[in-house]
Design goal:
The chain is an all-alpha fold and 78 residues long.
Length: 78
């Protein structure tokens, strides 16, 4: 096997001890966008948060949240 693919997900987070990862997903999404606001879109420092929320959150949620952010109706603190 020449090319092995390594799959990773977000690391365990003590703030989310239960199997329901909804809050973990939402928090990682918010952390990514807060990081982008502080570091700027050109920064690669926020990419780990993007990987985390993309591995935890259903695609439909991400699409809806992105639309809500664009419309100014996102319910979370950014």
């Amino acid at each position: 096997m020449a090319d092995e693919i390594e799959l990773k997900t977000a690391p365990a987070d003590f703030r989310f001890p239960t199997t329901n990862q909804t809050r973990h997903c939402f928090t990682r999404y918010i952390e990514f966008h807060r990081c982008m606001a502080v570091k700027g879109e050109e920064s690669n420092e926020c990419e780990r948060f993007a990987k985390y929320y993309r591995s935890l959150c259903p695609g439909e949620w991400i699409e809806r949240w992105n639309e809500q952010r664009e419309n100014g109706t996102f319910p979370g603190p950014l």
